[in-house]
Amino acid sequence: LKSCGVVMDKVNQADNIASTPKSDEPSIIADEALFAYFALYFMALLSMLIGCFRSSAIVRHHVEKNRKMDKSITIKDFRSFPVQSSITLCVLYLFFKHDVILMRLAMYTIKGAHYAIETLMPYNDVMFVDKLIELNNMTINKLTTISERIGTDLMNTTMANATAASGWALFSKHTIRPILRWITCLLAITCMSELAKPFVQKLINHAPKCFGKFRENIFYEVVVVSSKTEDFERPKKLGSYWFDRYDIYGSFLCLPIIACHLWKNHWITNNLIGLALSVTAIGSLHVSSFKAGVALSCGLFVYDVFWVFGTEVMVTVASNIDAPVLLKFPRNLLQISDPLSNAGIKFAILGLGDIIVPGIFIALLLRFGESRQKRRYFYSAVFAYAAGLFITTWVMHVFKAGQPALLYLVPLCVGIPTLVALISGDLHHMITYNEDHLVQHDDSDVEDESENSDAEAVGDNLEESKKRK
């Protein structure tokens, strides 16, 4: 979900496809298209910058409080990110393109035949009735053959296959799209409340004295542990989540935005949620070292290029997904008749992955620069991101085709700061920069490290004994 890429000339919903002839469709004015590109450009840069400074503030807060980071992306984790993203992308692609499977399923069930015909053919088609009768006859013949082979009657076989078809129909794109929207919106409540928390805190502190009870903050923590015994003698901590009253207040403050998006699915609320997700993700996803950041960026670079240029999977998922996991802006803004509806709007869209993936690497460069008391690497990375996004937009506008933004962003965001470090003489410090000491390790990791150190010690002793002999 987080590496959808930039895909142009795609309508975000199948329900919004206009049924009028192409000659009646409004043409997109060049100025409107440029304004849409500029809006996406501005939103991407703004969310990336806020997320980077927020990441630096979070790490600084942990250092001041002498706390460890719960999780971090290490160089061992970069292999799983492209694989997990590819699996998620392929599963969504199957859900969005499974009408062909339903057509094959129609060969074995009457209900599947009706569903496929009603889904894939318009009602006003002259061939509708003929095709339906033909499929029904073919289905009865198939079911008769199956029932004779397995030794059951035709009615039981038909009912079993009809039940299977009904269950499979539940996993259509018309069902998956609302589910993804709800899941993303529930996640967005946490992100938006976290961003709104400082403003809510200032608002309550400046409130009249009658709101004194609300000023008192109370902290809560939800911990998930597992144990092999019923008494939890040696519990293993799986995860924890803590929040306070101000988080709850922020959630109530953000609920109207979430409710409006679930109700109308408007592009403005979509962008508000997308910006909140981007800023929170860049601030929360901690990369432990420069090598891990480069490895992660290169892995997702290959993933993005392959799925956009090699197959139609990325374009299909990006154009069918109905969750706020991308930023979008109307390319025909001045021609919108109903501002509260998405009908007739052609969007320019930018995937949140094209903001988050470079953003967490640029946030690492910001922290590295602060450790060296130099921000030139952060400034050069921001310039590289702006240049890469501009090149992506220009290529997309000229060739009228979707482009994998990471194809241009990753080489520039990695190459330009590295070149600046080489000129400044800090290349060695940049490559060896590591924040692993700020991360809390699991017991298993500590045991593995101790076992490795013991093995190394035994190996050294054996070598010394051999040399003495």
Automatic annotation (TrEMBL):
UniProt xrefs under Pfam families: Peptidase_A22B
UniProt-listed InterPro entries: Peptidase_A22B_SPP (IPR007369), Preselin/SPP (IPR006639)
Source taxon at top rank: Eukaryota
Keyword Transmembrane (UniProt): yes
Keywords: Endoplasmic reticulum, Hydrolase, Membrane, Protease, Transmembrane, Transmembrane helix
Ranges for region Disordered: 442-469
Molecular function terms from GO: aspartic endopeptidase activity, intramembrane cleaving
Coiled-coil regions listed: none
Keyword Hydrolase in record: yes
Topology with respect to the bilayer: Multi-pass membrane protein
Transmembrane intervals: 34-57, 78-96, 270-288, 300-323, 343-366, 378-399, 405-423
GO BP terms in the entry: membrane protein proteolysis; signal peptide processing
GO CC field: cytoplasmic side of endoplasmic reticulum membrane; lumenal side of endoplasmic reticulum membrane
Compositionally biased residues, Acidic residues: 444-454
Compartment(s) of residence: Endoplasmic reticulum membrane
Similarity-based family: Belongs to the peptidase A22B family.
Identification of the protein by name: Intramembrane protease 2
Organism name: Trichinella pseudospiralis
Gene: imp-2
